Amino acid sequence: MLPEHARTHNRALVLQTLYTEGAQSRADVARETGLTRVTVSDLVAALIAEGLVVELGQREDARPGKPATLIDVDREAFHIIGVDLSEHEVFRGAVVDLDGQILDRDEIARDGATGEAAVVLVERLVAKLLDRTTTPVLGIGIGSPGVVDPHGVVRSAPNLGWSDIALQERIATRFALPVHVANDANVGVLAEHGSSHHDDLLLIKIGHGVGAGLIIGGRPVIGGGFAAGEIGHVVVGTDGGPRCACGKDGCLEAWLAVPRLTAQLDELDELDERDEHHDGAASARDDILREAGRRLGIVLAPVVGALNLSEVVLSGPAELLDGPLHEATVDTLRTRTMAEHNRDLRLRMTEQAQDIVLRGAAVMVLSGQLGVS
Amino acid sequence: MLPEHARTHNRALVLQTLYTEGAQSRADVARETGLTRVTVSDLVAALIAEGLVVELGQREDARPGKPATLIDVDREAFHIIGVDLSEHEVFRGAVVDLDGQILDRDEIARDGATGEAAVVLVERLVAKLLDRTTTPVLGIGIGSPGVVDPHGVVRSAPNLGWSDIALQERIATRFALPVHVANDANVGVLAEHGSSHHDDLLLIKIGHGVGAGLIIGGRPVIGGGFAAGEIGHVVVGTDGGPRCACGKDGCLEAWLAVPRLTAQLDELDELDERDEHHDGAASARDDILREAGRRLGIVLAPVVGALNLSEVVLSGPAELLDGPLHEATVDTLRTRTMAEHNRDLRLRMTEQAQDIVLRGAAVMVLSGQLGVS
């Protein structure tokens, strides 16, 4: 390990220890990290100079000798801006503190904007969010639909009409702040990972499209072409299915995207209204959701089997996902894989609700700027 | 990073540099690794004492000053024992040198042995292999079918009648040597990774059963229940399929395992012999192989999509896999995923032929004992 790499690594280690364990003395940090007291004191001095770490006063304890000075990450020193471009109608943003709490929100209607007009909307939203905080900003995190490369270039986001848009560089230049851009589901899974006990985790994000975010061995998976998680256009089963916008029949998105599910349920409601003797609308509704869940299970079974995943998380409208759809996905996964290997598999709804991308964007900035997760 | 961790890391860095770059001076190693000359000299002295590194004499060059002494990994200092338990009829083993070359081989017929009798056969094979080398042995690597935990306990290998067999501990105690045991396909993918340019790699191993080995971001994936790659009993498609030994219909193994394919082809040959006017046997043969390949593609499409894999490798009998089966898998993968994301996907036959598990077992020992890959 190169000396400068060792220093960066040790700095992140000190920050991570303070971040997760809270206020403690320099000696505590040395014990916890295995670094020498001299190294810790040196790193802490630099972190105090940067304003990231603060002295809290002396510990009141009964230990003999000079009482130790407590230090902690200054959780109020910086804010983070999180932006979620994954919704069809609106770009949403938030001011997030270093503990991941959302302090303030704003949004901007997309009104069908694409291409350059959509980039301008992102800039306007970021400007509005920056106006809402007087605290220094650690960085800006953005979750975008589509394929995003490690330099934050949106290689392709058809919904927004984006192709090779260097969003990260553009926002960084405009606001002179560190910016991190990644795919929305890949960002979302970072938020979910924080509240999970597992180092292998799959997030399925169901909205206007269907995408996945994946963490394996504690590390995000981005894929050879930066398109990991792009499962919306994988064909489900061998019995056809609805025609998809991409031209294929029976893509996962054609079964499962929110507009598609909503349209099917609306059709059912209309049928119900026209014919007051029309029975079993509730069970017909359940059938539609159950079939969508079954289709999700069919696509996930090989992924769960190949990775031997312990945890799969669903994100999207709870009124659609959390019920027959969820149950059918679990049932299908169990009957289509080797049960004894996947006994511990847990499929659950996200705990982040609609804020999953905003919170994940903040985690991405914390980890990118401080090495803290 | 703890000081002793740093030392282990730096030692592996020095070994890795010598291992891949070949003979060079201590100063070259320092430049290459970014470590100080003092650190390198200190580590090299310890490695020479261990017999892992050797001085080769002085460089004949025109540079001014005292000519530098060349050092290298002593590639003849140690041998590795590799063992492959994945075949149905026979346990195979090899003596492998530090460069991964197979120097000698041996095997032992299984004769249907299971349980304790099968463990005794493994011991006997290892003893025979150790007899074939007078060079010190760095360690023993074993690829076993079934689910193997990180301590080398075979949790479950139905073919061998093994359940919670502490094979690693047992062989290590018997021979007083370091032993590493892992799943055969997970071992195999290590060998394949050596000859690949990709850090994401999926190996599909087709034999008596069907299993997969997976490397993501350069690291082996083992799964929450240590059963990553166990895709043999994932159900393919939604149109039924042959009854599998596990009781389900249409498992990947029921379509693709070698005994199943061979039986189908034999049936065709019999038909052909009985009726000399029976036409199109060759095209019927192709149809069987093509359908098997299509089924493999159906199961792999969601995995390739979710991971955005660049490379999938097939291992097994080339006369079955390398032709219509391979072609149909590629075609199916392309038509069932988003083509533009998986444009660079390459599906190829292994370059290790039948030795993939033996070579992978040697890589596992190299990496486990020396930190070298």
UniProtKB/TrEMBL annotation, chains A, B:
The keyword Transferase applies. Residues 10-63 form the HTH marR-type domain. Keywords: Kinase, Transferase. InterPro entries: ATPase_NBD, HTH_MarR-typ, ROK, ROK_cs, WH-like_DNA-bd_sf, WH_DNA-bd_sf. Coiled coil: none annotated. One of its GO terms (molecular function) is kinase activity. Belongs to the ROK (NagC/XylR) family. This is Sugar kinase. It comes from Agromyces badenianii.
